[in-house]
Write a structure and sequence with these properties.
33% of the residues are buried. With 309 residues, the chain is of the alpha/beta class. Strands 3, 4, 5, 6, 7, 8, 9, 10, 11 and 12 form a ten-stranded mixed sheet that branches. It has three domains: 84 residues, Winged helix-like DNA-binding domain superfamily/Winged helix DNA-binding domain (Arc Repressor Mutant, subunit A, Orthogonal Bundle), CATH 1.10.10; 109 residues, Periplasmic binding protein-like II (D-Maltodextrin-Binding Protein, domain 2); 104 residues, D-Maltodextrin-Binding Protein, domain 2 (3-Layer(aba) Sandwich), CATH 3.40.190. The chain starts with a helix and ends with a helix. 44% of the residues lie in helices and 24% in strands. It is rod-shaped. α1 crosses α2.
Length: 309
């Protein structure tokens, strides 16, 4: 039994006449009559009464037509669902990210992706770079945003593209002596209590700070350790000291704080987006397309690394 048999039976029931049903289907009447007869032999029941007034479903035919109509509807839905999945309009995307990525660029990327692909289920996981990279390599994530590219066994099978360049920025309370300064120097930082990140990504940032302040910098030994950039800004607003974090902190201004550049300018690890080079998931493809359109400066690099250039 094929889908065409179901369509033929439904057309015959609608038109109550072999000739009219055949014309609606775009076939000749003899093939239609033969297909209906074959269908009745296969079901083992007479599905239609042939009378002078027309062709009408029997009780068995009525029961058959109910199921036939549902089956064709399900087949149409299956085709539609398959098409949506193939276009990346449905499915699942598992994204791991460091907290600072929520300042930029994830708000714009996720907002746009959610509006354009509401049928894709987003599973979002905030995690440190090391754990995010390990989860991506293990297949537990589809894409990860980390500080610096993933490293270690399996990282060679990932495509990694910088999505944000950053440098060290200072943040203080509006009442702090440094408030209003366009920049603060290393000597000024050494004379103030500091607030720095203490999460699992801290070693990479701490290494940059040690280069800036010196290996034996007492200022770092006595620094207040904050969980993330939001806590750094909150503690700075409370007057706990000079907060040091990525320049993307400026994307989340809050009352009572001021930002200053740190001189000399100190680069921080890039924000890097990574995914498995063999992953052909339509949902991932749709997400990467959103990244291209939302972050034009990333698109060319992403295409080169993914082999599309």
């Amino acid at each position: 039994m094929e889908a065409r048999h179901l369509r033929y039976a439904l057309a015959l029931a609608e038109h109550a006449h072999f000739g009219r049903a055949a014309r609606s289907l775009g076939i000749a009447q003899p093939p239609l009559s033969k297909q209906i007869a074959d269908l009745e032999r296969e079901t083992g029941a007479r599905l239609f009464d042939r009378t002078r007034r027309g062709v009408f479903p029997t009780a068995a035919g009525e029961a058959f037509l109910v199921r036939a109509r549902r089956a064709l509807e399900e087949m149409a839905a299956a085709r539609a669902d398959a098409g949506r999945a193939a276009r990346g309009e449905t499915g699942r995307l598992r994204l791991g990210f460091v907290a600072s990525a929520l300042l930029d660029p994830l708000p714009d990327v996720l907002g746009r992706f959610g509006r354009e692909r509401p049928g894709v289920r987003l599973e979002l996981h905030e995690m440190a770079s090391g754990r995010g990279a390990a989860a991506l390599i293990a297949g537990e994530l589809d894409v990860a945003v980390t500080l610096g590219p993933p490293r270690g066994a399996g990282a060679e099978h990932l495509v990694s593209v910088p999505v944000g360049h950053d440098h060290l920025t200072a943040v203080v309370a509006g009442t702090h002596p440094y408030a209003g300064q366009a920049s603060v120097s290393v000597d000024q930082l050494r004379r103030q209590p500091l607030i720095v990140a203490a999460g699992e990504d801290e070693p990479a940032v701490a290494a940059c700070l040690r280069v800036l302040l010196g290996e034996d910098a007492a200022a770092l030994e006595g620094a207040t350790m904050a969980r993330d950039v939001h806590t750094i800004m909150g503690l700075a607003a409370c007057g706990a000291g000079v907060g040091l974090g990525p320049s993307r902190m400026r994307e989340a201004p809050r009352a009572g704080i001021r930002f200053s550049e740190v001189t000399p300018r100190t680069a921080l690890p890039d924000l890097v987006l990574s995914f498995a080079d063999r992953d052909r998931s339509p949902a991932l493809g749709a997400f990467l397309d959103t990244v291209r359109r939302t972050c034009p400066h990333v698109g060319a690099a992403l295409d080169v690394r993914a082999g599309r250039a």
